[in-house]
Amino acid sequence: MPARRLTEALEASKKTDLNGLDIKLTYSCTFSENSVYSLQFNSVGSLALGLADGTIQFRDSDHKQISTTKAIDGDIPVMSVKWIKKDGILATLASGSIIECSINTGDPQIRRLFKEPSGTNCLDISPNNQATTGGSDGCLRIYDLSSETMVRDCSWHTSRIFSVKWKDYSVLVSGGWDNVIKLWDTRTRGTSVVNISGPHICGDAIDTFDNFLLTGSWRKHSALELWDCRFSSHPAVIFNLDSPEKGEYLYCASLLAQANSALAAGSGTCGLHLVNLITGKITAFVSFSRAVQTMHVNNEEAAMAGCGSNIRVCSLLR
């Protein structure tokens, strides 16, 4: 009954009829033996990539390489990149550094903003220009980007945090190695509003839409789950990604709610799955040579990357 109610509510909430969504590989390259830990499109389709050797690479809307920074903190990996303007990003490193990188003058210009006491694994930016990070110490930290000050920190996880998302202006969602998803209202000083037990998050594998929460766990089976935050005690709807031998082991997941679909990728699947959330069926798959560690979706494309600096970009076909 909870699963049926959840999928019925999702179908009723869609704004556009995109049930014919498909994906098609349009670009692929390998540029070095250097893993990609994070990537994101900006508003014009350019890509920023955070690499394992501590550099950040920028590619234009045709996916051609524009520039690459020098190693920021030696060979410490860049764990997360987020565009904050058309020609600039925020990035977090496993060293705990949070930096701003601008490419408006051609060559990347790096400015250090904050230094956290442990590795900083993930980052998200709110609609009102606040940045939140998740650290290896289990702590969430909120920064005001206008004043460049930390406004709040809280240790609500008992292990490393690997994904944090602003659900709206005030509600944050986070998850990591402690197998608990936490939703909390930043307007309060109390404990988290909702706890969801089960998901083991090892990458950017949390996404939200209205009351729905998608999680991708790094485990062999039953890794992709859809939850209704209003009924957190109810079991999730589980989607089978049909990878019986290697398992699923997801690092990333994205909710395409207006299409009643989700994208998921990881180290077991070694590729990108498109899943219909109403029927539960896999509607498309794009293979990848090795583990997929990061993925990002804009209105027209999905990009994925991972081990060995493989990049693949797919068109979203409606």
From TrEMBL:
Q: Which superkingdom heads the taxonomic lineage of this protein's source?
A: Eukaryota
Q: A Pfam family for this UniProt protein?
A: WD40
Q: Which PROSITE patterns match?
A: WD_REPEATS_1, WD_REPEATS_2, WD_REPEATS_REGION
UniProt repeat feature WD, residue ranges: 154-194
Q: SUPFAM superfamilies this protein is in?
A: WD40 repeat-like (SSF50978)
UniProt entry keywords in alphabetical sequence: Repeat, WD repeat
PANTHER family from the entry? ANAPHASE-PROMOTING COMPLEX SUBUNIT 4-LIKE WD40 DOMAIN-CONTAINING PROTEIN (PTHR47822:SF3), CARBOHYDRATE BINDING DOMAIN CONTAINING PROTEIN (PTHR47822)
Which named protein is this? DgyrCDS3475
Q: Which organism is it from?
A: Dimorphilus gyrociliatus
